[in-house]
Structure to design on (271 residues):
């Protein structure tokens, strides 16, 4: 139940222009950890997994019709996780359809074993499989990282692990996106084909709360003008439970940082 109080917008220290960039990277590393890990018994799954399930549930089969553009991406956040999980699910669905199609064509099980490879995962968690059906189109969708302060090294590393994850190297203001946004996308050097012509879907993952009310309205107006859909995901809300969780965040990070960030002495010192 939401508390009966209006929104109070406080500034975040790491959002300030004077805040050292190397410390901002440490903050973003913690946020990525909180997105992609779950901590029993408080959570049954990670927040990033819940986001993927929400997108799959609400968009259904039409999820394949979109290119997902993430705003205020920071160092990448949960978007690489979204991309991997969404595309793995789409590829599994395509494999199941292929098996059903082959079964309908022939009851010769030995032929099916010869033509279909068992799907496996590469070192980055993406499914890898091939089939003899040359007419089977790629079911995967693209995800694009953007930020007003692009984190090129972090993005380049993340995108090197998936051909479906890209970034825009120029600063992108979420309140005023250019109409040719997709044409600005940086793709791997091995990928010469343009992005598929799909509808843009805007994502705001733990980003929307950064904006005071006037810029937030501008951002929503811009989103409605330049996208076919959008989703806003936050890890907090104006509830007693959320406030309690935030208060527990400090002690939690003090306890787990030694495990997840051991060897990063700067990170541990400032924690």
């Amino acid at each position: 139940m939401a508390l009966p109080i209006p929104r109070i917008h406080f500034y975040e220290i790491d959002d300030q222009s004077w805040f050292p960039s190397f410390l901002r990277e440490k903050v973003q590393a913690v946020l990525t950890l909180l997105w992609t890990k779950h901590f029993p018994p408080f959570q049954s799954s990670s927040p990033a997994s819940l986001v993927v399930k929400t997108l799959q549930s609400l968009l259904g089969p039409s999820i394949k019709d979109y290119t997902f553009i993430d705003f205020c991406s920071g160092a990448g956040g949960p978007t690489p996780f979204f991309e991997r999980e969404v595309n793995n699910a789409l590829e599994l669905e395509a494999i199941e359809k292929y098996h059903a199609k082959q079964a309908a064509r022939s009851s010769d099980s030995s032929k099916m074993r010869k033509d279909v490879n068992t799907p496996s995962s590469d070192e980055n968690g993406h499914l890898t499989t091939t089939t003899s059906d040359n007419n089977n189109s790629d079911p995967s969708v693209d995800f694009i990282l953007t930020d007003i302060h692009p984190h090129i090294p972090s993005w380049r590393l993340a995108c090197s692990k998936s051909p479906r994850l890209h970034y825009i190297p120029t600063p992108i203001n979420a309140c005023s996106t250019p109409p040719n946004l997709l044409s600005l996308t940086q793709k791997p050097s091995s990928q010469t084909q343009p992005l598929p012509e799909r509808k843009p879907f805007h994502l705001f993952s733990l980003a929307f709360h950064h904006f005071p009310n006037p810029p937030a309205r501008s951002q929503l107006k811009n989103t409605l003008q330049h996208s076919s859909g959008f989703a806003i995901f936050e890890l907090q809300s104006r509830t007693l439970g959320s406030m309690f969780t935030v208060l527990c965040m400090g002690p939690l990070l003090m306890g787990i940082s030694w495990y997840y960030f051991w060897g990063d002495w700067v990170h541990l010192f400032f924690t």
